[in-house]
Amino acid sequence: MGYKIKDHSDKTAGLEPVVALSSKEQFLFFVEEHRGLVWGGILLVIVLIGGLIALNWLSQQEEEEAWALQGQAQQRYLDRPLDDVEKGKNNIQEASGMFQNILEQYPATPSAKVSSFLLGNSMMETENYQGAIDAYTSFIQDHTQDHILVALVQQRLGLAQLLNGDREAAVTVFDAVLGNPHALNKDQVIFELAKLAESEEKTDDAVKRYKQLIQEFPLSPFSTEANLRVKVLAPEEEQASTESESDVGSDVGQQTPETQEESNGEGEKDQEEGEP
Fold first, then answer.
1. For residues 230 and 215, is the Cβ–Cβ distance under 8 A?
2. What are the phi and psi torsion angles at 10 (to 5°)?
3. Is residue 178 part of a domain?
4. Would you say residue 1 lies in a domain?
5. Which residues contact 5 (CB under 8 A, 6 or more apart)?
6. Which pLDDT tens digit goes with each residue over 16-54?
7. Strand, helix or coil for residue 243
8. Count of domains observed in the chain
9. Are the CB atoms for 111 and 119 separated by under 8 Å?
């Protein structure tokens, strides 16, 4: 019969103690183990930062070039000798071409926004109304968030459409300005609608628009002319209003001294009766 001999030796004595690594040591160990991956990530970050810096520099260069061209175009646009009309027209045409070049070469720059508006104005000056309509429409589509400037461009678009013979489109655009809560040129648009109605011999509509302008924008410079137009187009209403005001004034002025004395006496009497 065999016997088992128990081994009383400590089996754990040969095991090495576990050493806890700090987070810093763990990071260094990871870097050492994945050296190629880490260096690749660092290079990628450097490339991305360099690319952003280069794009920013190129963007600034484009803006500077666009503004320089913009200044030349505006100078050409404003150069209109009074003694040489033909030269003035040629300068406007050249400026139109320069504005167009800015839109094509530097479409994302701030100067392109200004050039788009001035392109429409220059085409209006040369009586190219369809070209002006296209330029203004493009501006409105590209800058819908600029509500104030869009309202001004819409007014110009409406005038271009009127000159191009499209009355309905012009009225639609003018109504859009009136429906824009941010628009600052509503008084001028109402005045344009009133003049349009007057030119079509729609006197009632014209008077209504002029009165709307006077009531809603009494401090507008257009309200003075609107008052004059109401007097011309509706003299009977103006006369009735004047007579009504004069009647009220005459009732107050025609009160006789006896009537005033009686009124004062009655007032004193009522006061005495009211005293205890």
1. no
2. -80, 110
3. no
4. no
5. none
6. 555 566 676 666 666 667 676 766 777 777 766 766 665
7. helix
8. 1
9. no
